[in-house]
Amino acid sequence: MKAEFDKEIDSMLRERARRGRAASGEPGAGVGVGAPSAAHLDADEQSAYAENALPAAARAYYAAHLADCDDCRRGVTQLALAAGIAAQLESREAATGQTVSTPHDGWRARLGALLAPRAWRYAAPALALLLVGAVSLIVFMRRSPGESSIAQRDASEMSERQRPAAAQPAETHHAPQNDNNATTAIASPDQSGAVAPDANSTAPNPAAPPSKEEVAANSERAERVTPQLGGSVASDSVAPSAPAPVTSGGATGGAVSALPMPTPAPVAEMRVVTPESSEAKTRSGERAAELARLENRPGELDNRAYENRRRERISGPQRNNEQVRNTHPADADDARDRADKQDGTFARNAPPPPAATAAKRTRREMDRGQDETRPAQDAERGEGAGAAAETRNVGGRKFRRQGAAWVDTAYRAGQSQTIVRRNSEQFRALVADEPELRRIAAALGGDVTVVWKGRAYRFR
Amino acid sequence: MREGTTRLLGRAAEARALDAAALLPRVGGVLEKYLLRHRPEASAREIAAFLDALRADELCLVVACERGDNAAWSDLMEQFRATVLSAARGASPNEGAAEELAQSVWADLYGLRARGDGQAAGKLAYYSGCGSLGGWLRAVVGQLAVDRHRKSARLVQTEEATDFDRLAQEQHEETDNFTVAAAPDPERALAGRETAAALERALAAALAALDAEDRLLIKLYYFDDLRLREAGAVLGVHEATASRRLTRLHGEVRKRVETFLIAEHGWTKQEAARTLSDAATHLDTDLRRMLAGAENPLASEQREELYE
Hints:
The structure holds two protein chains of two kinds.
Chain A: H1 7-24, H2 43-50, H3 56-68, H4 70-82, H5 85-96, H6 106-114, H7 117-142, H8 145-167, H9 196-202, H10 212-224, H11 253-258, H12 278-295, H13 298-301, H14 303-313, H15 329-343, H16 354-368, H17 375-382, E1 391-394, E2 397-402, E3 405-408, E4 417-420, H18 425-433, H19 435-444, E5 447-452, E6 455-459
Chain B: H1 2-11, H2 20-36, H3 44-52, H4 56-66, H5 70-91, H6 95-110, H7 133-155, H8 159-182, H9 186-208, H10 212-223, H11 228-235, H12 239-265, H13 269-293, H14 299-306
């Protein structure tokens, strides 16, 4: 093996050795750099050195002598060659697959071993795989996180709302669905200090049902809250047990005070997103943007105008089981418990800033593209500030009072319905065929929506 | 140490009726010679590792021979007769001389000669068990052959040898003067001689500053004309390792030479590098001239190495 020597130094060393050999007349005699450091090595020392059987310190000691003593060096060389040390070293290297090295090899030997093709044979594919994985992760994370996350969140919210609605019996009393029954308000830490501390104080024990005093106190505080909605408002008024009313409150500032403030319902739910909830922060940011958009369009802030626009899109009364509102304290507590388990941190009993509720409703309707319940419309019918929601069982069917109308709980929002006027020929023919419908219409009176054999009829 | 000696006896396939007390003086001497003398602060773990590396069977065989165990002697001669004869043949000019040398070795081993205190001066007392017994016997044969050669050389100092030394000295002087004679300008010749002397001193200082094993490798490769495989075997490293180490040494020597020239002669780094380059080129030219003339007995070897 011929290494890439330094040609100049190599030539100088050869010349120096040649002169030494010529001067002494012996092939092995060089120009020494000094006298031998000690007495000559005995036979045992020579053989032990040649067989590499000495401890490191002793070996270094004898090496110093061998470097200066030609006779001993010649003897050791002959012993090493006779013992076949070179062949042993080669076989050892072949067995281990590595070059035998000593500490004198230094960092170059270690670096050479690290960069050897033998090592890279396995390292290169692993690194390539790691690189591909990292690039894939980056591409995945950069792929429109906004839309996808909103869609996923809405889907999860839908499932959250449907789950408790399906699990909860419907024989509860319905609260009148008007503006006064706003159920959700969000108090964020960067809102006015009157709300945030209260909300945070309730957060540690979200599952505990509020007492009547708490409800009343929170309602009063909520009325005092100026709805200066910050970026962290995360209204989730359509919580599993909340009917998601469209409040009539204004959006911000003095406009709110000029409007009739909603009266808190006996049982109101308020969800507060605490700072440690990242999901809530995301929601609050989006909703803040939505609110900012609404604030820039004052016309939309007018609650009545908003109601009118909503009413134009309404195609039917609210029939959604997911929006059953519990007025019974126990049921309300159950609903809150379920909501707490699903959403993490909550604070309760603070009335919602009307603009937040309105903005939230608007966003949801736009996102889902579906008609939901129309609490505002029903509220107008009910005219009942403080009127309690009712359900009645007639003919084995459950009806929920929405304002002046009774709506079958089986009715789904957006379901097509056939309007049948009482005392009309069509009505008489229908009840003749289906006597049960006559009994329902007679028992409830007024505006009744009933789902019968898969079709929805509205008796007026 | 006693525990190590006991373990050594336990490792031996045939203890030859030896006990720890019989081995303890020998083991203590070996430990002092090869470990504690060079590393007095050696830990108990190092001592145990050293003792466990001793060749138990061969050490027991030798100690048993020293104690007059005839069976051990028979075993020793049976196992190593061929080894001793082979080593003697390598150190002797003919078969008869080899036989005589081998017999002398066995006599020395047995201790036919008496020491000053009347005890037998057997060479077996010097075997430590660190290396193999066969290697030690080869070394004994080699040393005895050298001793014999030196004795005969002192008795027969021929005139031819004196003439050879004189001729070698003249050749050396001619070689040294060749560089000067090649320079056409006396002033340049003087400058060249001073430069060559400075380089010579710098190179000697650089070699002297190297570590012992590095200096040994330089000696084995350049001065003893060993190949890298052979030089590596002496150092106990593979050929590739020896090659890498030699390449590193070139860099170290260059750096030390340049540093010496800068410090001692006030040269700049560029001047030192240029001088090294010029000297190497000039040396190469001289070697080519010598190789072309084929007058130097080393010419064939140099050609082989240079154009390898």
